[in-house]
């Protein structure tokens, strides 16, 4: 071989090594799942941190505050930029994704905003899915933080919400208030954090199964995966019970407004009225007929939903005990993972129906 021939081969190799790897449907799909997993974790963590700080009066609120929104925008920009490099429209078409952001037949509120987003590049596709996931995750956060659900959903739970996908059942509405540095706050905090970890771990197991070629039916029927999910259910229950004791979910836990010497009290409609009138709020007590604060028998309360907000019909499943609360949270995660995964696996994970219409792939 001539020296010119050798030189030509070396130059060709150098060019090949220097050239960026071409996107393929397989690598594109992995990046969709992995990048949006990062976004989901960050989205939930930032909101949880915000509400916890607000409960402790370390943040004025409402949540998400400007700093939280800025950090969410930063991770969203990074995710969409990565998908812009990793995915072409041809890749997305091969994977079964459409060329629009319409994942619901009759979207309203935040979902209508998501559906109207353009999808002409991989980056725009990433922004589309991030929008839909944010709506679903905000709905989940409103379920976890029942005492802050109104602000997390922008003032509305129904199809007009500017931030949340609709919650199914929201009556009776839990008291909307900061819990303070109390045992009730400790319970709420672990419900949120354990619920966050449960969702991301369950979804991660199913995502790996889906990327390996599994469908919703085959993944949920996998005995090994079932055993892992059962262990996750046990961890969720243990974590919540360790911090919440025997508290029961109550939309409006009882309180007494102590205003005088000893346990003297005055009737107050709300905790805010009590504090504004110079009183001291004592939880899990009532102002009895002798105008003294008296303890309430039975389990202490946690400000939460009295019927499971994720339900096929309303009123939802009644919640009277901590076990009921945990069961509601577990079933909510099952429904939420279906709604999140169908956005990423258009051919193997059919979307469930939604209150505003039927999801479409």
Describe the structure.
It is a single chain. With 361 residues, the protein is mainly alpha-helical. The protein has two domains: 25-242 and 327-358, no CATH class; 255-299, no CATH class. It has twelve helices and eight strands. It has helices at 3-18, 25-55, 66-86, 89-94, 109-115, 122-144, 149-152, 183-211, 216-221, 223-244, 271-276, 322-341; strands at residues 248-250, 255-258, 280-283, 285-287, 293-295, 301-303, 353-354, 357-358. The strands form four sheets. A two-stranded parallel ribbon has the order 1-6. Strands 2-3 form a two-stranded antiparallel sheet. Strand 7 (353-354) and strand 8 (357-358) form a beta hairpin. Helix 8 packs parallel to helix 12 (322-341). It is elongated. Residues 1-22 and 354-361 have low confidence and may be disordered.
- Name the strands of the widest sheet in spatial order: 1-6
Largest sheet geometry = 2 strands, parallel
* Percentage of residues in helical conformation: 40-55%
Q: Give the CA-CA distance, first to last residue.
A: 56 Å
Quickly count the domains.
Answer: 2
Report the order of strands and helices: HHHHHHHHHHEEHEEEEHEE
Number of distinct helices: 12
Please report the total strand number as a whole number: 8
Low-confidence runs: 1-22, 354-361
Q: Which shape, going by the Cα principal axes?
A: elongated
Classification by helices and strands: mainly alpha
Radius of gyration: 25 Å
Mean pLDDT: 89
Strand content: 5-15%
């Amino acid at each position: 071989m001539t020296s010119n021939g050798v030189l030509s081969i070396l130059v060709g190799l150098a060019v090949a090594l220097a050239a960026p790897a071409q996107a393929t449907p397989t690598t594109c799909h992995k990046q969709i799942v992995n990048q949006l997993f990062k976004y989901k974790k960050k989205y939930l963590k930032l909101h949880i941190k915000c509400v916890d700080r607000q409960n402790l009066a370390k943040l004025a609120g409402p949540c998400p505050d400007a700093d939280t929104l800025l950090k969410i925008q930063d991770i969203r920009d990074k995710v969409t930029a990565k998908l812009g490099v990793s995915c072409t429209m041809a890749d997305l078409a091969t994977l079964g994704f459409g060329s629009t952001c319409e994942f619901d037949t009759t979207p309203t509120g935040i979902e209508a905003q998501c559906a109207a987003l353009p999808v002409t590049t991989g980056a725009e596709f990433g922004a589309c899915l991030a929008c839909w996931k944010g709506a679903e995750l905000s709905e989940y956060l409103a379920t976890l933080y029942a005492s802050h659900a109104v602000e997390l959903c922008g003032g509305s739970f129904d199809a007009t919400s500017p931030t949340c996908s609709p919650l199914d059942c929201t009556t009776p509405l839990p008291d909307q208030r900061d819990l303070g540095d109390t045992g009730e706050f400790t319970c709420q905090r672990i419900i949120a954090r354990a619920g966050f970890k449960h969702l991301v771990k369950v979804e991660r197991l199913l995502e790996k199964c889906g990327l390996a070629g599994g469908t919703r039916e085959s993944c949920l029927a996998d005995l090994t995966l079932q055993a892992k999910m059962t262990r996750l259910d046990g961890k969720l229950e243990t974590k919540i019970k360790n911090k919440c004791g025997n508290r029961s979910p109550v939309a409006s836990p009882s309180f007494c407004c102590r205003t005088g010497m000893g346990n003297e009290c005055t009737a107050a409609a709300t905790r805010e009225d009590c504090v504004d009138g110079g009183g001291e709020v004592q939880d899990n007590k009532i102002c009895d007929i002798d105008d003294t604060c008296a303890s309430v028998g039975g389990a202490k309360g946690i400000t939460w939903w009295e019927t499971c907000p994720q339900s096929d019909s309303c009123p939802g499943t009644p919640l009277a005990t901590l076990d009921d609360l945990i069961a509601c949270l577990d079933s909510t995660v099952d429904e939420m993972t279906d709604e999140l995964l169908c956005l990423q696996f258009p051919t193997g994970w059919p979307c469930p129906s939604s209150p505003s219409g039927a999801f479409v792939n």
